[in-house]
Design brief:
Helix content is 82%, strand content 9%. The N and C termini lie close together (12 Å).
Length: 108
């Protein structure tokens, strides 16, 4: 009976971890989309010799090309670091999930 309760506890723990993993994957996907937008913006800035603009609080403002490239470059770097951090968390949770599954299978 105690073993059955332990298995149920492990199953619940597994569900919680899998929920956390799903949240991480959603965050990662969102960050990757933003990273692609930043990369595309940087690419377009490099292609143009015209004035560049950015949107701030719903208002389009002219921006200095070099400054905007710097801002986007910093944002790109930040996004890459956040994605790497999420990937590390993802690996840890996947490892923990595998361990719990093994424990459940041994206990069943």
């Amino acid at each position: 009976m105690k073993e059955k309760a332990n298995v149920e506890k492990k199953i619940e723990e597994l569900r919680v971890i899998e929920g956390s993993l799903q949240n991480l994957l959603a965050q990662k996907q969102s960050l990757q989309l933003e990273l692609n937008e930043v990369k595309n913006a940087l690419s377009e800035i490099d292609k143009t010799s015209d004035d560049v603009y950015k949107i701030v609080a719903g208002v389009m403002l002219r921006a200095a090309k070099d400054k905007l490239k710097q801002e986007l470059g910093e944002r790109e770097k930040t996004l890459k670091m956040r994605i790497e951090a999420i990937e590390k968390q993802e690996k840890l949770l996947e490892k923990k999930t595998a361990e719990i599954r093994r424990e459940i299978n041994l206990g069943a």
